[in-house]
Design goal:
The structure is a single chain. By secondary structure, the chain is α/β, with parallel strands linked by helices. The chain has a single domain (about 10-240), classed as 3-Layer(aba) Sandwich (Rossmann fold), CATH 3.40.50. It has seven helices and twelve strands. The strands form two sheets. A seven-stranded mixed beta sheet has the order 7-6-5-3-4-8-9, sandwiched between helices. A five-stranded mixed beta sheet has the order 2-1-11-10-12. Helix 2 crosses helix 3. About 45% of the residues are buried.
Length: about 240
């Protein structure tokens, strides 16, 4: 992987664009939620659509740009994947773990945390994880209800600024990765990988696999032995150990 000072590097948004060029219809993220029984699969095209909407919200409503911190108070989930890619599309720094609630923008499933952020002069989006959610009645005043509002944003995105390779892309408890370092090689071309269940390692694993034209499988609230499921999903790499 190029160093942060190298002229030859690509952002996660560039990686997503390459996935669209390579095969827009191929699955890039498959997410199981054993607590609800849901299985959601996103192609590069569908993932890019979600990313564009979220990035437009961040840029247009919150003025997010390089230097902005976006806290993801979310589990390792398909929704956290597109919110991270949206933040990287505007050049922001994604915060995960204990620092997430302190972001300039807080993306959370917790109404009380979203309310606290706005009361402190910051911005917040309340996320409902369910795939078919259309409204969250618990959304506090001043907080964007993703379920009812995100669909109204454009399906294409044009960033106003691009981060430098040395700008921080991701911060987690005890570590940081710059844009020029994120997603270091670790997967073979076309890998189908089981991603970690902690958000920070999951995001780093996902970018690494996508750089290799691969796809990831996430299992949220896994119940029982997963071997048969992973075989059916043609998983060839287990990345559940932190990177």
């Amino acid at each position: 992987m190029p160093s942060p000072r190298s002229a030859h590097w690509s952002t996660p948004a560039d990686v997503l664009a390459e996935l669209l060029r390579a095969d827009a219809a191929a699955p890039r993220i498959t997410c199981y939620d054993d607590a609800t029984g849901e299985r959601i699969e996103l192609s590069a095209k569908v993932l890019a659509n979600w990313v564009a909407k979220a990035a437009n919200l961040l840029q247009d409503d919150f003025d997010a740009a390089p230097g902005t911190t976006v806290g993801l108070d979310l589990p390792a989930h398909w929704r956290s994947a597109y919110w991270a890619l949206a933040a990287w599309s505007v050049g922001a720094t994604v915060l995960v773990g204990p620092a997430a609630p302190d972001g300039d923008v807080v993306i959370t499933t917790q109404a009380a945390l979203a309310a606290t952020a706005t009361q402190n002069g910051r911005d917040a989006v309340l996320v409902t994880l369910a795939a078919l959610a259309r409204r969250n009645p618990d959304t506090p005043a001043g907080v964007i209800d993703e379920a009812s509002e995100l669909a109204g944003y454009p399906d294409t995105f044009a960033p106003l600024a691009r981060p430098s390779a040395a700008d921080p892309a991701l911060r987690w408890d005890g570590g940081e990765a710059a844009y020029g370092e994120l997603g270091a090689p670790g997967a073979k071309q076309g890998t189908r990988a089981l991603a970690p269940t902690d958000l920070g390692p999951m995001l780093r694993a996902a970018v690494s696999v996508w750089r290799a034209d691969g796809s990831i499988v996430l299992v949220h609230y896994a119940i029982g032995d997963q071997s048969r499921r992973l075989a059916a999903e043609r998983v060839t790499l287990d990345m559940t150990e932190p990177l």
